[in-house]
């Protein structure tokens, strides 16, 4: 009887937790729902009080004006190109460094890794001025390399992937060594596929971070054609006598790629976060 009572209490607790998580999920999705529905309304309906929960008609002129009167397609391409290239290269570099810290033995490894971890506590804004001067000295302002190269080295990625490589048994690497495999072959064909969940999770986190990297993109993109979607939409927000419908539509377009990326890589993200929390 005690066992059945305990199971009943656990079922009730699970039900309460499920209801609570569902309510929190709905609350977190409300801003996104409000953003999308307002993008399908004229500006007058957005300011209407009390507001309409759903638009009375599908008003698509906000999106037409955004893509016809503003270089929104170029902004979208810039954002996707910069975010994808930066994320891909940063994940590769992070995986290489994390593998070295996890599996290789070299002098000063622990001290160097401690410096990596310590740098995570330094805000990016503290070194943005010397970094800006360095980019100006290279004459990279208003170019893609200025938006991409300074963001390639991410200590967080090294810290995150190191735990994945450490969870892989050393016997796999030793067996490959006995079979004559090179260090690069072991990394590329053995270690990297095993760490795929962690790499997928890091890819999502980095992509969202670089997509939303407003400050650095604002400093580097001087011309309107080099603006990313985040900077371009923010520019619309600063106009006098603004068209609120246009701004909301721009914000909705900027949010959609991140949502799609998360949906596409959701499986790897959940596996990566769960696996990273357990170290064998």
UniProtKB/TrEMBL annotation:
Domain ABC transmembrane type-1: 76-265
Entry-linked InterPro entries: MetI-like, MetI-like_sf
Annotated keywords: Cell membrane, Membrane, Transmembrane, Transmembrane helix, Transport
Annotated Pfam families: BPD_transp_1
Compartments it resides in: Cell membrane
Annotated Gene3D superfamilies: MetI-like (1.10.3720.10)
Swiss-Prot/TrEMBL GO biological process terms: transmembrane transport
Protein's UniProt name: Carbohydrate ABC transporter permease
Species: Vagococcus intermedius
């Amino acid at each position: 009887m005690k066992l059945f009572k305990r199971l009943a209490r656990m079922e009730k607790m699970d039900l309460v937790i499920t209801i609570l998580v569902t309510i929190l999920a709905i609350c977190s999705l409300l801003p996104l729902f409000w953003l999308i529905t307002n993008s399908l309304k004229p500006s007058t309906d957005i300011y209407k009080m009390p507001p309409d929960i759903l638009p009375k008609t599908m008003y698509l002129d906000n999106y037409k004006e955004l893509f016809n009167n503003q270089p929104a397609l170029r902004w979208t391409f810039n954002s996707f190109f910069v975010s994808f290239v930066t994320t891909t290269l940063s994940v590769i570099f992070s995986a290489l460094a994390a593998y070295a810290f996890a599996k290789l033995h070299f002098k000063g490894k622990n001290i160097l890794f401690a410096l990596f971890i310590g740098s995570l506590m330094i805000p990016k804004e503290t070194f943005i001025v010397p970094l800006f001067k360095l980019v100006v000295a290279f004459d990279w302002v208003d170019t893609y390399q200025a938006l991409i190269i300074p963001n390639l080295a991410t200590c967080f990625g090294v810290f995150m992937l190191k735990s994945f490589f450490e969870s892989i048994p050393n016997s796999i690497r030793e067996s490959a060594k006995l079979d004559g495999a090179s260090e690069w072959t072991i990394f590329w064909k053995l270690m990297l596929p095993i760490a795929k969940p962690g790499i997928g999770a890091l890819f999502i986190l980095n992509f969202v971070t670089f997509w939303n990297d407003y400050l650095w993109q604002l400093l580097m993109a001087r011309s309107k054609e080099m603006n990313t979607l985040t900077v371009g939409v923010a520019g619309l927000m600063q106009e006098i006598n603004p068209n609120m419908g246009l701004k909301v539509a721009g914000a909705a377009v900027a949010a959609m790629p991140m949502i799609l990326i998360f949906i596409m890589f959701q499986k790897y993200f959940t596996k990566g976060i769960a696996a990273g929390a357990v170290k064998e």
